Amino acid sequence: MRAYLVRRLLALIPTLFFASLIVFTTVRLIPGDIIDMMIAQNDIGSKVSRDALEHALGLDRPMLTQYLSWIGGILLHGDFGNSLWQQNPVGEEVFSRLPVTFELGIMALAVALTVAIPIGVISALRQDGLGDFLGRSFSILMLAVPGFWMGTMVMVFPSIWWGISPEVKFVPFHEDPIGNLIQLAIPALILGTSLSAVTMRMTRTMMLEVLRQDYIRTAWAKGQNERGVVIRHALRNALIPVVTLIGLQAPILIGGAVIMEQIFVIPGMGLLLLEAVSRRDYPVITGVFLIVGVAVVVINLLVDLSYGLLDPKVRFR
Amino acid sequence: MTLLSVRGLTTRFRTDRGTLTAVDDVSFDLDAGETLAIVGESGSGKSVTALSLLRLIARPAGQIAAGTAMFEGKDLLKLSEEQMQAVRGDRIAMIFQEPMTSLNPALTLGVQVGEPMVLHRGSTWAAAIAKAGDLLDRVRLPDARARVNAYPHQFSGGQRQRAMIAMALACQPRLIIADEPTTALDVTVQAQILALLKELTRETGAALILITHDLGVVARYADRVAVMYGGRIVETASARDLYRTPRHPYTAGLLASIPRLDQVAGRRLIPIDGQPPDLARMPPGCAFRPRCTRATAACDAARPALAEAAPAHWKACFADAA
Predict the structure, then answer these.
(1) Exposed, middle or buried: residue B279 (CB in 10 Å: 0-12, 13-18, 19+)?
(2) Interface contact A309, partner B, CB < 8 A
(3) Residue A259 lies inside a defined structural domain of this protein
(4) Is residue A76 included in any domain, yes or no?
(5) Can you say whether the dihedral through the CA atoms of A95, A97, A101, A104 is positive or negative?
(6) Confidence of residue B320 (pLDDT cuts 50, 70, 90)
(7) In terms of residue numbers, what domain contains A216?
(8) A214–B96: do the CB atoms touch at under 8 Å?
(9) In CATH, what number is assigned to the domain containing residue A166?
(10) Residue pair B257/B269 in contact by the 8 Å Cβ criterion
(11) In what order do the strands lie in the sheet with B18-31?
(12) pTM confidence score
């Protein structure tokens, strides 16, 4: 088990190295560079030359030198560099926003699972019945309706109809936990239900598969009732692939959080990323991406480890 | 004393090719402590008969269309689902064909063997798992008490079938139905498992319905035999009687097709020509008619009913006794 963990953690190094290379180079290839923006916004073109500005920001150095100094800073001092606009440290900014996104993600995941698993199970048990039909229709609807549209509608319509608009001032958890949870509830609900669609379908398919197994018939033959058959005998076996799916959905979850944070003005990593991209704030973009990359890889490692809890045949070697 | 009395059991399946009658008007009695072997080829309806008694037929495709099955004064086919759950695993236990897939891969052996005691005896899990250790020891699983927390994949096929037997014995049922319990096992293990099953049913006084396609098994372990063909019982007699004087041409054919130690050396085995009937397209007369060497015109017109051809020896055939 320990050897397995060490090996998995070592495997993170090449993954993150390539991720950092890709992120670092691609952000600099986005059309419209930061110098143009700074000049256009601040009307400083007359006073400062383009070259001087580029030099001041360190962007005139060769790409390789820039990369090495950036990655060196991270590896040697844990320094993700400074924002090109505000000059504040990227690491601090990202880590202060990470908990908000994390909270939104966990809440959305909780919503997704509490919606998806029971509906998926009921859908499988009542295959082709009314419950199954409703469950599957709901899932198709959730797949078809984009989260950003739903989020926008939730923002717009209550204010048109009843003059209610959601709070746009963010309440941090440590100041007012209840207010914070209420504020995050709607975006988490929207994000969670759209994630639940795929999970629900996977749960349904796997339950149908597992319910046909011989050991389910054995459970019935022992005198188990439907509840016991489903909960004790079927669910655990059916959830193994569902857990994999949840790991694969982690990047989608983060992508969705970016959009929800923008719509509901939640100061998480998503909002930070969006602002950074629109302002071509390269160190911020690369910093966010790198940390998200680590998060995705770590989530998938946790998913792999959780197989050991569900499937006794899995041994970590 | 009669423990189980089945009358006119009929089970049908709806398929893409129409409705087929897998079990057609099957009747038999079983005394307490008796071992009845139900013998037949694949598709003869022997497994469906067993599953029908426990009402484990896959619904909605399968349906018990008619019949009664009186067991301890109750008609199993008329019980509510809750009442049936109280019977399953407690009064009647079942052992399945595939020990490799019939145990839940995610639960320990102790939990699976102990579960019937939790369900039917109100036992705590700790007590049930401890008792499971005793039961596993009784079915001679090596190192049983230490291995209650092991998972099915850590055991061989024969060991798993022992665990299935332990599970069936958990609540001391009056009837055990074993559906081809040794078909999936190595030949060397088959005899051990059957001997164990027979020994334990004798000790506990449970009746046993042994479903098999292997007439060799029948000779050794059964008191009585019912031979099924095309969803019907075509002959039933004591095991000894059936071996000595098979009266239905199908039974006679089956016996001629297996090697026997008591036969003349050098005698050739005689296979039964043709294929088992297609249950979706049953001929109007006797189902065995197309393969029968003694068929007459009467066999095309109607299905022969099961009738007593000799004392306690019943057959469903128009041809004269062989």
Answers:
(1) buried
(2) no
(3) yes
(4) no
(5) positive
(6) low
(7) 94-266
(8) yes
(9) 1.10.3720.10
(10) yes
(11) B18-31, B2-15, B62-71, B74-75
(12) 0.81
Residues on chain B touching A243 (C-beta within 8 angstroms): none
Q: What is the CA radius of gyration of chain B?
A: 20
Helix (H, G, I), strand (E, B) or coil at B261: coil
Q: What is the DSSP letter of B79?
A: S
CA dihedral over A85, A252, A196, A153, signed as positive or negative:
positive
**CB atoms near residue B89 (< 10 Å):** 27
| B164 in contact with chain A, both atoms CB, cutoff 8 A | yes
Strands B92-95 and B175-179 come out as parallel
- Percent of chain B topping pLDDT 90: 49
For residues B37 and B194, the answer to whether their CB atoms sit within 8 Å is no
A107, part of any domain: yes
For B125, the 3-state DSSP assignment is helix
Q: How far is CA B15 from CA B2, B20, B48, B279, B282, in A?
A: 36, 7, 15, 11, 15
CB contact under 8 A, A233 and B116: no
Provide the mean pLDDT of chain A.
Answer: 83
* The pair of three-digit structure tokens given for residue B138, joined into one six-digit string: 């009784």
CA distance between the termini of chain A: 6
Interface contact B181, partner A, CB < 8 A = no
Under 8 Å between Cβ of A206 and A241: yes
Say how far apart CA B214 and CA B211 lie, in whole Å.
9
What pLDDT, on the 0 to 100 scale, is given for residue B322? 42
Is A272 a member of any domain?
no
Beta carbons of A35 and A50 less than 8 angstroms apart: yes
Check CB contact under 8 Å for A215 and B102: yes
Angle, nearest 10°, between helix axes A177-211 and A130-144?
120
> Where would I find the H helices in chain B?
46-53, 81-87, 109-121, 125-138, 157-169, 187-204, 215-221, 239-244, 249-256, 297-301
The total number of structural domains in chain A stands at 1
Please report the ipTM that was assigned to this predicted complex.
0.90
Please tell me if residue B256 touches chain A, with a CB cutoff of 8 Å. Answer: no
Give the whole-angstrom CA distance, residue A226 versus residue A125.
9
Cβ contact A74:A80 at 8 Å: yes
Which regions in chain A score pLDDT beneath 50? none
Instruction: List domains and CATH numbers for chain B.
Output: 2-91+171-315 (3.40.50.300)
Measured between CB atoms, does B109 come within 8 Å of chain A? no
